[in-house]
Amino acid sequence: MKHHPRRERVRGKGYFSRLGPGIVTGAADDDPSGIATYSQVGAATGYRLLWGVVFLLPLAFAVQEACARLAIATGKGLAGIIKERLPRPVLYICVILVAIANTVNIAADLGSIAASINLLVPIPHMVGVIGAALVIALLEIFIPYHRYAKFLRWLCLSLVAYVAVMFVVNVNWGQVAQGALVPHFDWGKADIALLIAIAGTTISPYLFFWQAAEEVEGLEATEDKTPSRAHIRAMRGDVGAGMFTTVFVASSIMITAAATLNAHGITDIQTAEQAAAALTPIAGQYASLLFLIGIVGTGLLSVPVLAGATSYAMAETFGWRESLEKKPLQAKAFYAIILGSILIGLVLNLVGINPIQFLVLAAITNGLTAPFLMAVIWWLAKDSKLLGKWVSPWWSKLLLGIATLAMTLLPILWLLAP
After folding, report:
1. What pLDDT band is residue 57 in, cutting at 50, 70 and 90?
2. DSSP letter at 228?
3. Assigned domain for 8 exists
4. CA 232 – CA 227 distance, rounded (Å)
5. Most buried of the four, 54, 112, 233, 242, by CB within 10 Å?
6. pLDDT at 13 over 50
């Protein structure tokens, strides 16, 4: 029995060639917003908040696993399930929240791509933003996403440079271990805002809808759509690999920024040049180029995911034809939402927010919108009438509950902090 075209079993030779939506979701999670956020946290606090991203690994896995399991068991996307099982106001709130978070994220990613290009080619910022938006829109409309995503993933390998830097600079591994294992933060708005940003860029609303939508795409490509225990196990391995990759790269970026920027007194990243400086120990004069490749690669990979997640949610809400594998004329409304999301993201860049700070703001927006959506996912995933034997096991309910509670509590703590 085979469900997702590339994912049949979790063990055996060729495992990595079979990874499906989970690993793609994990790759998209380390987008420009993630790079900027993790870099800013490392620069501002050193190794002190490293525990935040480590703590999020099992929680991020639980959220994405629940989204995937809901889709596999029902054959529907997240918005479609909410529409069927919950009151319409809940559906509309969920769709509005994910649309707002995604659009802000798209705007920030477009701005960061333009700022990164400007490191090598001195062009006006808005020219770069318009060029990036145009290229992404054309790629998403005229080339099936799964085709060009294969090539873009190679550009994302530039993120491995952050891992390499850890082994060529003076990293205090004792402090790393303490920062990763011992929760600690300063009681103030600055640290709590950074924790919200870490949580928001690691557990992002668009990933919930994207994971479910991609699982449904995989089901539609198969004849036998009945879920099996083997497929659920393989899905969990896939999601686990994706989330581990996300957290490992995130930790590497934070450690690298702490060892290169924070250690030399750079605690507030304001420009792409400062962010790229973290790669200087391994790339030297090519640090800007390597940073550019990473930002452009992850941006071109993630912006279609962001716009696509919004479009999937809207299409399921209003009953439109949906799929990134369909041609534009076969799903006009679906692609219109994608174009609209990218266009609004382009316009938001006219506000004039610093591109790097815009990325961190996008992460915070994700962190503020995620808790309501996570509460809805927790409720649906434990619905035995909806899922039958695929209802959430105890560990899923516990981890997803902790994740929802933690991300709800952080904004409250920010309001109370001095």
Report:
1. very high
2. -
3. no
4. 7
5. 112
6. no
3-state secondary structure of 407: helix
Closest CA to 38 of 247, 293, 181: 247
Give the sign of the dihedral formed by CA 220, CA 224, CA 227, CA 230: negative
Q: Which amino acid is at 267?
A: T
CB 401 within 8 A of CB 63: no
In a domain, 392, yes or no: no
Rounded distance between C-alpha atoms, residue 114 and residue 126, angstroms: 8
Residue 98, token pair as written in the block = 């994910």
Tell whether 371 is covered by a domain: no
Alpha carbon 154 to its chain centroid, in Å, reads: 18
Residue numbers of the domain that contains 349: 15-363
Q: Which of 62-76, 84-98, 306-320, 395-409 has the lowest mean pLDDT?
A: 306-320
Q: How confident is the model at residue 413 (pLDDT cuts 50, 70, 90)?
A: very high
Distances (CA, A) of 375 to 62, 84, 99, 402: 13, 17, 17, 10
Q: Rounded distance, CA 416 to CA 79, Å?
A: 34
- Residue 257 falls within a domain, yes or no? yes
Q: Which two tokens stand for residue 360?
A: 């961190």
Query: Minimal CA–CA distance to 103: which of 391, 278, 362, 284?
Result: 362
What is the end-to-end Cα distance of the chain in Å, rounded?
Answer: 57
333-354 as b/e, with b when 16 or more CB fall inside 10 Å? ebbebbbbbbebbbebbeeebe
Joined together, the tokens standing for residue 382 give: 């434990």
Residue for token digits 């490293």?
50
Which positions ≥6 away from 358 have C-beta within 8 Å?
Answer: 107, 108, 111, 112
The SS3 of residue 49 is coil
Q: Give the percent of the chain with pLDDT over 70.
A: 87
Kindly tell me if the per-residue pLDDT of 29 is higher than 70. no
Distance in angstroms (rounded) separating the CA atoms of residues 97 and 218: 26
CATH of the domain at 341: 1.10.4160.10
Question: How many domains, the chain?
Answer: 1
Q: What is the DSSP letter of 25?
A: H
